[in-house]
Every structure is written in C-alpha cells, then in structure tokens.
Design a protein that fits this description.
five-stranded mixed sheet, mainly beta, binds 2-acetamido-2-deoxy-beta-D-glucopyranose, five-stranded antiparallel sheet, DPH3/4-like
C-alpha cells in the first residue's frame, strides 16, 4: 500500500538565472519539519547528505545540443564551458527532503518549455557533478508532462540522476496520449492551455531516492515509487488534482 510518509509539494516557477547567480540563490522547501543538517544551498556545490536533510538540485531547460560540449560530451549545466547562461535557457531550483517522495510541479501557464529548447537536464554537484541525460519535454507538436527522477546516493554523495520511464504503461489505451519513442506519454501541444486548448500542461516530476546516506542508512523511497504506477501520486495532491487529474478522469 501507499507509504505513510509526508509528501512535500514544491511549486516553483521557472526562474531566469544565470549560472553565477546560482551561488546567491537560496532554494527553499526541504528544511521544513526540522532535521536538516545540510547547509549547502547551491546546486553547483558538493555535499554529503543524511536522511532528513534538504538537498538542493537544479533543472535546466534548453535545447538538446546545448547540454553537450562539442556535440559529444554531456556536461553539468554548472560547467561554464557550456555557456548555457548565454543561451536561451531557464533554470529551476528545488530543495526536496531526502527520502521523502516529492512531486515537483512546474507551472507552464507562463513558461512553455518548447520556447526554451524543449529539453531538461537535472543536475547537482561540482567536483562530484551528476547530471541526468537530457529528457524531451516539448515541441510544437507534443508535450510530456509526467516524469520520474531517481536520485542515487552512495554514502551520502550524489552519484547519479536518472529518468525512470515506464514504456508508456501508464497511458496505454488512452486516446488523449501519444506514446513517444516507446517511452514517454505525451499530450498534443495544441490541446494545452495558452496553446489553443484547455488542458493544463504543467509538468509534474516525481522524485525518488535510492542508495545510502552518509551514515550508510538505506534510502527507501525508490522502492516505494517502484511499486506505484507512474501517475498515481497525482491523486494525492489535492491542488494539482483539480488541474491535472480531472482533465483525464478515466485515466487517473
Ligand atoms: C572541442 O572542440 C574544440 C575545437 O574543435 C577543441 O579544441 C577541443 O579540444 C574540444 N573539446 C573536447 C572536450 O572535445
Ligand atoms: C498554473 O497557474 C495558473 C495561473 O496562475 C493556474 O490557473 C493553474 O491552476 C496552475 N496550475 C497548476 C498545476 O498549479
Ligand atoms: C516533436 O517531437 C516528436 C518526438 O520527438 C517528433 O516526432 C516530432 O517530429 C517533433 N515535431 C516537431 C515539429 O519538431
């Protein structure tokens, strides 16, 4: 059954930040409820976490090629060689609480990802930089609105960030969705609000943690997410429910 953990809903609009201003930005969210011992608030610094800490990471929105150096080497958006700040990119910062399943929401009513290249990369760290592969979000034809991001720690150090896909299992047979590349459930962009349609195409990113913290305590939230259908968390967030779920009642 569903874990009895507190669920944190962090809602941030996409911020226009340059890489340098990251260091001045204080992200909020994961320090609530006490127990935080992690005083690193920049997504471009290294830290080691324990359970109950807040952990800051970023998501960069840009075109796919802009995340690569010389079109071949995938770098962290913190790496100045990418010069993402000079490009048409946007950044969001999040600070979820370690080992709590969280749903991040990015409201697309004023921020259309396809205007910024249509791809996103999750990242954190400097010397121990981790970054996800670029995930397709949107172009003028399709938008993917639901993602699961797994953050893997070893001894409290972030090792890996990856997108967990379900091979479209969660939208199979639903005519509102198109399965892209046999991995992502997508909505047609023209059916989104502000794009000629009526669907709220805000992005939802489910977070899960795996591995161990600095005291070698095992992070469990990944196992819980694994047992959930990709979309099932949405029903638990009442303020998202009205906008995200009601539009596809028979789906959720
Ligand atoms: C990128 O390309 C430039 C110019 O072609 C070259 O000087 C540089 O060594 C390359 N860098 C990497 C990391 O491949
Ligand atoms: C996004 O913002 C719009 C306008 O403020 C609001 O009407 C809508 O409910 C928001 N969507 C979500 C999912 O929070
Ligand atoms: C949008 O992306 C989808 C999936 O990658 C692709 O099939 C389609 O051709 C793209 N459309 C445009 C207008 O680029």
């Amino acid at each position: 059954m569903f874990p009895s953990k507190t669920l944190t809903l962090l809602v941030f609009s996409a911020l226009t930040l340059t890489i340098t201003s990251f260091h001045k930005t204080v992200a909020i969210g994961g320090d609530g409820g006490g127990g935080n011992t992690n005083n690193i608030y920049s997504p471009c610094s290294d830290t080691r976490i324990q359970r109950s800490d807040g952990f800051t990471f970023g998501i960069a929105f840009s075109s796919r090629p802009s995340f690569f150096l010389n079109q071949t080497v995938l770098l962290s958006p913190c790496d100045r060689r990418l010069s993402l700040a000079a490009m048409n990119s946007q950044f969001s910062l999040f600070r979820p609480k370690i080992d709590e399943i969280s749903l991040l929401s990015i409201n697309t009513s004023a921020f259309f990802p396809d205007n910024y290249g249509g791809y996103m990369v999750a990242f954190a760290g400097r010397k121990y930089a981790a970054r996800s592969i670029p995930a397709f979000i949107a172009n003028s034809t399709f938008i993917v609105t639901s993602f699961t991001l797994v953050m893997e720690f070893q001894k409290g150090r972030l090792q890996n960030l990856y997108w967990k896909r379900d091979g479209c299992a969660s939208c199979k047979g639903n005519q509102n969705f198109v399965c892209l590349n046999k991995q992502d459930c997508a909505i047609r962009t023209p059916s989104c609000k502000g794009r000629g349609g009526s669907v709220d195409c805000s992005l939802g990113i489910q977070l899960a943690f795996s591995g161990t913290d600095k005291h070698l305590a095992v992070l469990n939230s990944w196992y819980e997410v694994e047992n959930l259908k990709q979309y099932s968390l949405y029903g638990l967030y009442s303020n998202l429910k009205s906008s995200l779920t009601n539009q596809f009642n028979n789906f959720f």
